[in-house]
Amino acid sequence: MALHGVEDVFRVLDLSGVFANAVLGGVIARREKLDPIGFATLAVLSGLGGGLLRDVLLQHGTPVALTDYAYLLTAFAGAAASYLARVEGPLWDRVWPLMDAIALGCWASAGATKTLAVGLGWLPAILLGAVTAVGGGAIRDIVLRRVPGVLGGNTLYATAALVGAGTLVLVYRTGHPTAASLCGLLVGAGVCLLARWRGWILPSA
Amino acid sequence: MALHGVEDVFRVLDLSGVFANAVLGGVIARREKLDPIGFATLAVLSGLGGGLLRDVLLQHGTPVALTDYAYLLTAFAGAAASYLARVEGPLWDRVWPLMDAIALGCWASAGATKTLAVGLGWLPAILLGAVTAVGGGAIRDIVLRRVPGVLGGNTLYATAALVGAGTLVLVYRTGHPTAASLCGLLVGAGVCLLARWRGWILPSA
Amino acid sequence: MALHGVEDVFRVLDLSGVFANAVLGGVIARREKLDPIGFATLAVLSGLGGGLLRDVLLQHGTPVALTDYAYLLTAFAGAAASYLARVEGPLWDRVWPLMDAIALGCWASAGATKTLAVGLGWLPAILLGAVTAVGGGAIRDIVLRRVPGVLGGNTLYATAALVGAGTLVLVYRTGHPTAASLCGLLVGAGVCLLARWRGWILPSA
Known about the structure:
Number of domains of chain A: 1
Helix content of chain A: over 70%
Structural class of chain A: mainly alpha
Largest interface: B-C, 30 and 29 residues
Largest sheet of chain A: none
Oligomer: homotrimer
């Protein structure tokens, strides 16, 4: 029962993250003057690309983004929202960083959990946790001919995802998967928010 | 017997589409002043990239483009043809749009059919039908540092593929897979040709 | 015993290639002024990208780069080395071409062997041998918004890999897999070194 509650919370946060990132994809599509196909494509890449990349690398069955309809429908809803309304202004600027950080923590946690669940070890778990969290944005950047923001000069997205996924692995090993998911999410989101607030970036070479 | 005939027609159209798109890949390789490796690579990406992407996403065995030799050999033949001869001029300009439209309809139909055949539902079937039809060109554009043409400002490729794949799913559900393949192909190719002839494009944001 | 010795030599050469290419990824990350995440990402793409691409295309289980820890740890070591020290100068300029050529031959040979081992034929074996050898560098180039060097105007990387993989397939067919691996490696590396020394490039269109 309690476990079920946590799973439901995770699903809501996961899909909220898909929606928020799909909306961001749409905002970028508008800047690039794309058509509805472009909006939908960038929404899917931004909201689902990290999970797709993780599942293609794990090679354990068709990616969940293709089998669980909630994912695609949520991404398309985000695309439609940002196509129909101009999603910009003070409310978006205030809500977006929070949703972004929660999505990052949620995806880092979920990606690392799935990697451990198929039998891989701590190192790929941390790596694929980070891939799940930041891979979608990186693919979107590549499609739009930008050097992915996570590679340098940006706030601590990848670092926050690695710390969140690392936290998950540590707590998971103690035999408490549900607590591990929550800790991974909170630590990943916390590092992301803290880095944004303090303006932390990694030193470039 | 009748079914076998339709399958043969589909295979001829499928491989013709691979050849035509491989030749287009070669035409683009010539513009970019690439060497034979570049010709072959762009031919494979243009002619087989959509199917490769679909099969990698489906995760149901090695992509057919790697197991059925006809695909790679046809793509290489297209690369060789466009390397040895300048495939440009009025005949190419007249034949290309027709082969292009047929390939699009054929691939949208085949991609959606394969997705349904491995047990997925209508939504991924339509999506992967479109990915099969336009994914190869999009990957080729990304490799050449162009924003993929299907994302905006171009004729209705992705839309035509979505309509064709949607038609396939609808007719397939009535229990007539062969008729569904044909309808998907014809509707997809028809929308593509009509859009090109009428100059239809989607409104950009 | 003898076989075991050859396997050990192959593993050392394989991991040396991962390290050398990871260092190259780091050298490029420094030029692009990336941060440590960027160094690690380019190191993984340069050193492991070809094998990841091959395993994703083969669809025969989780990529070995994710299951065998030596690969990721070696790639990260290369990233760290090039982040901490400026890996440039006459020694690097002299050692790099040799390590590069050996890695190319080793990967072409290993990629083709794995493709044959999962039951595919000579054509995909040669193709995936070349993908293993040059795919990582091509992905890295795409991420950095460059047209991949292997497509034209560069020394004979892809050609050397194709010749090496082709040699492997021919000797493998005679029933001597170990000799085949060695011949594929030596021929691939030899053609690569010879091409660099003589300044051979393919004619562009």
